[in-house]
């Protein structure tokens, strides 16, 4: 069983489906997806957590690849309030504080000893088992080197995580504390993770490629789309309806995703 962790709410349903549709096309192993979701109106009045309806839809997509695959959301709103709803980064105008939800993974008992964390704006172009099989028994986190760094600063959108060691070393506890106390101008969670992580492994960028390449395993499309709007509070970090149309034009290779997504939306109009 391959254990994947996402952090999405209802606004990210389309983005989550894009990732899952591509996943089951390339991987036939049973997949266990854990979604950490929050609904904290005092932080974001519009944010709504995943419910059983969204879970069942996502699980139905997973089962197209393997009938043993599962999808389950866990509400971590109370943890978010207790450990993250404070500090100088709550209203960072360049980056959504929602990205810090992943820092709560160690508090959820159902999160197993080894996981692959993924941003929802990831598209699979190969079998994820190749990445899953990388040995992380002696490190806390394995990830690709960030494109804008020359040091071993890893990008947090795709991380192979040794949760057993992380729970022992307190890595995510330290990261949460940093987010609550230290001001970050840009990448809140990524900066905290890289500061807190003591044992890491740098892996090939093909497992987290910012550009579409035929040999990449995971295409992280965050850099493809509009990204952040300079000097505003807006961060374009989700696939919206108009962005799907944009992607149809620049990535015709993903036609199978768009076709399947159209069918899903037609059959589940109440969720979109």
What does it look like?
The chain is α/β, with parallel strands linked by helices. The chain has a single domain (2-271), classed as Spore Coat Polysaccharide Biosynthesis Protein SpsA, Chain A (Alpha-Beta Complex). The chain has nine helices and eleven strands. It has helices at residues 13-26, 52-62, 77-83, 129-132, 163-169, 171-181, 188-196, 241-250, 255-267; strands spanning 2-6, 31-37, 70-75, 114-118, 122-124, 141-144, 158-162, 200-203, 218-220, 227-228, 235-236. The strands form three sheets. The chain has a seven-stranded mixed β-sheet with strand order 3-2-1-4-7-6-8. It has a two-stranded antiparallel sheet with strand order 5-9. Strands 10-11 form a two-stranded antiparallel sheet. Helix 6 (171-181) packs across helix 7 (188-196). The two termini are 30 Å apart. The relative contact order is 0.16. The model has no long low-confidence stretch (mean pLDDT 91).
The CATH topology: Spore Coat Polysaccharide Biosynthesis Protein SpsA, Chain A
Shape by Cα distribution: globular
**Helix and strand pattern:** EHEHEHEEHEEHHHEEEEHH
> What portion of the residues fall into strands of 2 or more residues?
15-25%
What CATH architecture do you see?
Alpha-Beta Complex
What labels would you give this structure?
Spore Coat Polysaccharide Biosynthesis Protein SpsA, Chain A; 272 residues; 7-stranded mixed sheet; two-stranded antiparallel sheet; globular
Topology:
Elements: E1 2-6, H1 13-26, E2 31-37, H2 52-62, E3 70-75, H3 77-83, E4 114-118, E5 122-124, H4 129-132, E6 141-144, E7 158-162, H5 163-169, H6 171-181, H7 188-196, E8 200-203, E9 218-220, E10 227-228, E11 235-236, H8 241-250, H9 255-267
Parallel strand pairs: 1-2, 1-4, 2-3, 6-8
Antiparallel strand pairs: 4-7, 5-9, 6-7, 10-11
Helix pairs in contact: 1-2, 1-9, 6-7
């Amino acid at each position: 069983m391959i254990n994947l962790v996402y952090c999405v709410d209802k606004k990210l349903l389309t983005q989550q489906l894009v990732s899952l549709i591509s996943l089951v096309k390339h991987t036939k192993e049973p997949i266990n997806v854990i979604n950490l979701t929050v609904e904290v109106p005092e932080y974001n009045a519009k944010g709504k957590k995943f419910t059983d309806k969204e879970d069942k839809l996502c699980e139905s997509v997973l089962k197209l690849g393997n009938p043993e695959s599962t999808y389950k959301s866990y509400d971590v709103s109370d943890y978010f309030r207790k450990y993250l709803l404070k500090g100088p980064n709550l209203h960072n105008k360049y980056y959504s504080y929602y990205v810090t939800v992943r820092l709560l993974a160690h508090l959820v008992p159902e999160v197993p000893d080894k996981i692959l964390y993924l941003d929802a704006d990831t598209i699979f172009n190969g079998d994820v088992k190749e990445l899953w099989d990388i040995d992380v028994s002696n490190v806390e986190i394995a990830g690709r080197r960030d494109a804008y760094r020359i040091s071993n600063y890893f990008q947090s959108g795709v991380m192979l995580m040794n949760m057993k060691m992380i729970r022992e070393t307190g890595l995510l506890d330290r990261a949460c504390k940093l987010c609550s106390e230290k001001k970050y101008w840009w990448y809140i969670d990524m900066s905290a993770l890289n500061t807190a992580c003591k044992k890491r492994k740098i892996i090939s960028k093909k497992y987290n490629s910012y550009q579409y390449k035929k040999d990449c395993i995971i295409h992280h499309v965050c850099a493809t789309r509009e990204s952040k709007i300079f000097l505003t509070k807006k961060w374009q970090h989700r696939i919206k309806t108009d962005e799907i149309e944009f992607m149809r034009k620049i990535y015709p290779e993903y036609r199978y995703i768009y076709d399947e997504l159209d069918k899903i939306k037609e059959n589940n109009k109440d969720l979109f």
